[in-house]
Amino acid sequence: MSNVSIKSAQEIALMRESGRLLASVFHALDKEIQAGMTTMEVNDFVDAYITDTLQARPASKGQYGYEYVLNSSVNEVVCHGVPSVAKKLREGDIVNVDITLEKNGFIADSSKMYCIGKVTPIAKKLVDTTYEAMWKGIETVKPGATLGDIGYAIQSHVEKEGFSVVRDYCGHGIGREMHEEPQVVHYGRKGTGMHLVPGMTFTIEPMINQGTYKTKLKKDGWTVVTRDKKLSAQWEHTILVTESGFEVLTLRDEEH
């Protein structure tokens, strides 16, 4: 617990603003993303919007040597998909767009699934179940709850629908740094792990696979894919533990 940054009221206000701005990025992207667009065009649109329109900083760009402002993870890509001028979005694709934004020294992190045109019923079910699971996890957040409670809520919902929870990647504390303590895994047992206290901020970002939870890292050193080449989906929000429950700092207009 000593490594966990508990945010002050002033810091929370700044994080709230970063989260609000990031939500507006997705609102703008909603009108742009479509079949025929390359994932690099998605990246460049978001880069310009964050930098020029919002006067903020894309927090992923340059971090750990990464060159781009977002991850674009299509179909069997679990996470960390690298934007490409060659990768066009096609009718029937599902794509996770994961964006980070820093304003006034504080970072917000969120991701959203986009269904490109008409997708298969199993793809739609996977996307919807992953979204529901994220919210099941979020709704457990309150002072005195544990990280295991979050993981249990997500895992039990997902497995009931016949899908699996990725074990290799997880959520994380966030604030002045993109990755702070604690690690937030998306599977687990009730009542285990760190207890939540007001002022903690972290991401909940379940990666859910159609088939096996096992993953593979591609040769580019970034892109993570499902071992069985089946579909994967992910949604993410940045969460604050409040005195009585939770606040979603990256909540988008359509979710209010």
Structure description:
There is one protein chain. By secondary structure, the chain is of the alpha+beta class. It has one domain (about 10-250): Alpha-Beta Complex (Creatine Amidinohydrolase), CATH 3.90.230. It is about 25% helix and about 25% strand. The chain has four helices and 15 strands. The strands form five sheets. Strands 1, 2, 4 and 5 form a four-stranded antiparallel β-sheet that branches. A three-stranded antiparallel β-sheet has the order 3-12-11, with no helix packed on it. The radius of gyration is 17 Å and the shape is globular.
Task: Jot down its keywords.
Creatine Amidinohydrolase; three-stranded antiparallel sheet; alpha+beta; globular; four-stranded antiparallel sheet; 256 residues; 4 helices
User: Which second-level CATH architecture applies?
Assistant: Alpha-Beta Complex
Extract low-pLDDT stretches. Answer: none
Give the total of domains.
1
Strand residues, percent: 25-35%
The secondary-structure class comes to alpha+beta
CATH topology: Creatine Amidinohydrolase
Write down the overall geometry.
globular
Helix content: 25-40%
Rg from C-alpha positions?
Answer: 17 Å
Keywords: Aminopeptidase, Hydrolase, Metal-binding, Protease
Organism: Alteromonas confluentis
Binding site for substrate: 80, 179
Binding site for a divalent metal cation 2: 109, 172, 205, 236
